[in-house]
Amino acid sequence: MQRRLVTILATDAVGYSRLVARDEDAALALFKEHAAIIEDLIRVHEGRVFGGAGDSLIAEFPSPVEAMRCAVEIQNQLAHLDEKLDEDWRMRFRVGLNLGDAVVEQDNLYGEAVNVAARLEGLSEPGGICVSGTLYEQVKHLPNIGFHDLGSRKLKNIPTPVHAYSVRGMSPALSRIRSMRWPWAAAAAALLAIIAIPIGWIYVPEMAANNKSPSQLLSPSQPSIAILPLENLSDPTHEYFSEGLTNDITTDLSKFSGLFVIAYNSASTFKGKPTKVQDIGTALGVRYVLEGTVQKTPERLRINAQLINAETGFHVWAERYDRTLGDTFTVQEDITKNIVTALAVQVTAAEEKRSGRKLTGSMDAYDYYLKGKAIWSDPDKVTPEGNEEARQLFEAAIKLDPLYSSAYAELSYYHVRAYQNGWSPDGKASLREAKQLAEKALSLNDDFGGHWNLAVVAWNQGEFDKSLHEYETARRINPNDPDLAADMAEALVYGGEPERAIEQIRGAMLRNRFYPFWYTWNFARALYMAGRYQDAIDAIATMTAPPNDVRLITAASEAQLGHIAKARAIMAEFSKIDPDWSIEQSAAYYYRRDSDRQHWVDGLRKAGLREK
To answer: Which residue in 590, 322, 292 sits closest to 459, CA to CA?
Structure first.
């Protein structure tokens, strides 16, 4: 009998039988969508599915760390998918993880290691993860993941009690990654659910809107466009190049105030999906779509680009480029100018001047820059090590081109990221370094990235006037970036302008139809500070598997409405997961007006949050 030490992941769908009873075909199609995401992520993390029946899957992993990362990513991506569904049709999965000794028989695994994982899955909440003590010891060091000790548990048909932990705080930082923030696979899966499943079965009437969004999405009056990911025809290792090129073209077009440009991560939901351009236009709320291919060799760059009217399906403009690799920036500029010309966009003198700037003359520096940017969008690299890898790549780009402003701006963001995630041993020093690098970037080229980083630094130092000035400058340069607008909204909340923050997030939601959950988080906090407590509660109710911290907003809002018992029950749930958080810590953040601080603290105190 062969045995080996393995990590087991067990997962099942909660309420699957109920959905089957309601509509068997729709339930099966929905389960297959979820299962496809789960199986893809298992493969990405070097796992193997070896069992499962009906509404469940069981997989093995050679590494406890990879299994843990996979479980977190499964719940995060399924949460994004479920946000698109009516509440009655959301399919939540429970996950159990165990490290133990298993019996090997051909391709199957048996024994207590497998059984414990299955029992732990039963302990998990819908949308949650439960792990054994043996696995916890191997993964407790992972960043952005917290654990709640459930104590020793007697599990059915398991002779020895098992120490169990539930997972909390599942990588909220993942949704705070700037530039190509949301991994496209999750978004594509969510969109596939829209296209593949008949609307009358399970989907909300507003196909393109995220949930029943609090924002009232209106059709933009100016020409609107989505830049679909350019298909990579080169070696798969060059995927970062095609994605980076697409993102750069999107950013270049975003700087024209006469255009309405959909965010990259919303447009990327269609990556690799054979979808009619008319359906894309409807889903994203745009009239024009740019699509194409890119092929990169050591010496040549070949790009095919087509601008299509999404209402008629007719081509508005098309071009084929076959240039030396050194002409990459010339091709980017030509594509941008041809689109602007074809759509008769009114261009200001400043926009025309800015569009003609060449940021670097070194293709090798550009290559390092794109590889560094790709790390921001990799959920497995939201770690100190991933941040360090990005730093090395941006520094390599700067070494090749000391005048490369964009590389300095991203290096500035490296320090901001370290500060925001608590990876820096000296947060104040990280902010000072971020400020210096952002100023260096701006001395070379007055672009939005440097101003954005200066805004974040100033806000975290309590300098609200300077922060909002830098945010506004960044938005004048890039009026279409929704993440910039939504990020600025948080500064507005602390800066005493919640109503302005509300309108700004609504605008961001319009440009990023598949927006990440932190948009709603900022939106709800702004609603609370504006005294719109029920609206704040309703906004949070649209979130699937929200992070624990949003319970603070819900509890404080219920308390301000006089629902004290309900508020205290919600706060008790928050404190179970984060028992050390206090009013003292909540009050420590910078506020422009002390009355806003007291407003927030008052709600938390009424809801029963501990003082210290």
So the answer is: 590
